[in-house]
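Escalated from tier 1: 2-acetamido-2-deoxy-beta-D-glucopyranose holo job.
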Amino acid sequence: MSIPNSRVPLLLFISLMFFTSFPGLTLGAVVSLRSIEIFKTHEWLKATTTVYFLCKGENMTVLLDVKRPHAIYAFNGQESWQPLSNFSSKKCKRCGLYEEDSITLDDVFDEWEFCPSDFAAPDGEYIRFKEKEFNATFLCPECLSLAGVDEHDDGKGMHIAVVVLLSVLVSIILILGVVGAIKFWRKKLREQDRARLLKLFEDDDDIGDELGLGSAI
Ligand SMILES: *[C@@H]1O[C@H](CO)[C@@H](O)[C@H](O)[C@H]1NC(C)=O
Ligand SMILES: *[C@@H]1O[C@H](CO)[C@@H](O)[C@H](O)[C@H]1NC(C)=O
Ligand SMILES: *[C@@H]1O[C@H](CO)[C@@H](O)[C@H](O)[C@H]1NC(C)=O
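Tier 2 regenerated the structure:
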């Protein structure tokens, strides 16, 4: 039968519709550092400093080039230590910017909740500024779609989901309708053929009767 075969492209179509409307669900979002300026160091003994970025539960990323305060360091995102981190959902991470301390515990520039929703349209840029400490610009274009997933919880998202669902349903009904119409049409043709054949046989019988009658005379 042709029906089971026609379900395969239908399923493909539905999953395609689903993943194109919720792209954040399928891809991880990579965060890179685009620029940073530190306004002071906490280290008294050394002329230069070692600054690193760390998210809880992940490995630290040492910002090798960042050595001096009051200099803007710009990055293109392809440096050996990039990306800084990544998000696989809209959930925030606890991250911070620290300075290695040769004697005591490492110093903290800042520690904060690092969230995909902080990255703003249109490019997915996020500027974290703390007075007298630092000014850093992070970039995560994919975070926009990740953060967009929680928009689906409110009215607009629901609206899109309903439209997608409705168009899928309408497509299914349309396809089933066409398949049904073709089947009905074929059945009708077959019935017509059979009727014509039967009529032919009946005609044959009539002819036979006539012939039989004719020969008896
Ligand atoms: C941290 O780095 C070590 C060695 O480089 C690696 O074995 C480990 O899996 C890393 N941990 C995470 C959470 O990435
Ligand atoms: C996401 O981050 C984890 C840990 O930092 C790393 O092991 C993994 O390879 C990263 N994935 C991507 C796609 O960058
Ligand atoms: C922080 O850095 C960004 C990018 O370099 C810049 O546009 C912004 O004006 C800076 N903000 C402050 C308060 O210095």
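Helices lie at 3-21, 143-148, 155-216.
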